[in-house]
Amino acid sequence: MLLDAPRRPLRLADTAIPEPGPGQVLLAVKACGVCRTDLHVCDGELPNPKLPLVLGHEIVGTVARIGAGVDRFATGQRVGVPWLGWSCGECRYCHAGRENLCDRARFTGYQIDGGYAEYTVADARFVFPVPDGYTDLRAAPLLCAGLIGYRSLVAAGDAGRLGLYGFGAAAHIVAQVARYQGRRVFAFTRAGDTEAQQFARQLGAEWAGPSDAQPPEPLDAAIVFAPVGALVPAALREVAKGGTVVCAGIHMSDVPSFPYEILWGERVVRSVANLTRKDGEEFLALAPRVPVRTEIEPYPLERANDALERQRAGKVRGAAVLAVAGSGQLPDLHPVP
Ligand SMILES: [Zn+2]
Ligand SMILES: [Zn+2]
């Protein structure tokens, strides 16, 4: 499914199977998650994507062919590909273990073709083994919603009372990890979205309400997953002294000005950018121990536009995932939104 230009629907196309170059693996894609970031690319909110582009950075597939010099993986092995597709290894960030901030980093499904396809190539150094116990479809959301959610949770520190703003793919995973760690979870959704609020309670949130509501007690940290800048001061108002508001998305509408008083008291506002391979290793080891159970809405690959529209409407319960034909596991198809 090709993006020819921003703000155009994806187009079903036949393209040549790519060849893995040195250090790369060719993957037969089985499933690919649909992330909010994919919409930001489609909508032209992230500048200068590769064009035409294959979106998708929550890829689960099996190794079909191995490029020169790769000894990490064997043919047939199941692996996952995340958002960080390449980093330089030479800049000050890479040297400091902060490859997520690499000046020359390249990202899957943005500057590198991704997983909305039957085959894709990936740099073997940025590919992870996928834990057993997950089907391909259920594993896919772990690769971004899970990984970036996990990085955001770490950035929230040891907060006992955790607010989650926007209860989509990432929050539904983070809520489970947070409960496993003994934290208390408070979920904020769009006003009137009682379905999402009920979903949050099922996953262990002790309170769920609209994003402009006051939770029953102050929060020690909040993670803002929704790309809505107005949620930053809203969350700051609910965070206790010393608390942190983590902005987890890659793109957000402008943050409105706010009185210094709501930041005073050593409150912190910070963002989380991308992921490191260490995040991936840690989270993919942790997920089966929780165990994180992903809620998914499967779509066949050729209905990627429907999945994106449903994501845009905020109607996905958990994560939308594309199933690739031939993976032998085409699911119950979700009705057209
Ligand atoms: Zn993502
Ligand atoms: Zn670098």
Q: Please, could you describe this protein's structure?
A:
By secondary structure, the chain is of the alpha/beta class. The protein has helices spanning 36-42, 92-95, 136-139, 145-155, 169-180, 194-202, 231-238, 277-286, 304-312; strands at residues 2-3, 24-34, 53-54, 59-66, 78-81, 84-86, 106-107, 119-123, 128-129, 161-165, 184-189, 207-210, 219-224, 239-247, 268-271, 296-300, 319-323. Strands 2, 4, 5, 8, 9, 16 and 17 form a seven-stranded mixed beta sheet that branches. It has a six-stranded parallel beta sheet with strand order 12-11-10-13-14-15, with helices on both faces. Strands 1-3 form a two-stranded antiparallel ribbon. The longest helix has 12 residues, at 169-180. Mean pLDDT is 95; it is low at 327-337. Residues 35, 37, 57, 83, 144 line the site of one zinc ion.
Provide the helix percentage: 10-25%
| Low-pLDDT windows of residues | 327-337
Strand content: 15-25%
Number of helices: 9
Identify the overall geometry. globular
**Rg (CA only):** 19 Å
SSE blueprint and pairings:
Elements: E1 2-3, E2 24-34, H1 36-42, E3 53-54, E4 59-66, E5 78-81, E6 84-86, H2 92-95, E7 106-107, E8 119-123, E9 128-129, H3 136-139, H4 145-155, E10 161-165, H5 169-180, E11 184-189, H6 194-202, E12 207-210, E13 219-224, H7 231-238, E14 239-247, E15 268-271, H8 277-286, E16 296-300, H9 304-312, E17 319-323
Parallel strand pairs: 10-11, 10-13, 11-12, 13-14, 14-15, 16-17
Antiparallel strand pairs: 1-3, 2-4, 2-8, 2-17, 4-5, 5-9, 6-7
Helix pairs in contact: 4-5, 4-8
The structure holds zinc ion (2 copies).
Residues 35, 37, 57, 83, 144 line the site of one zinc ion.
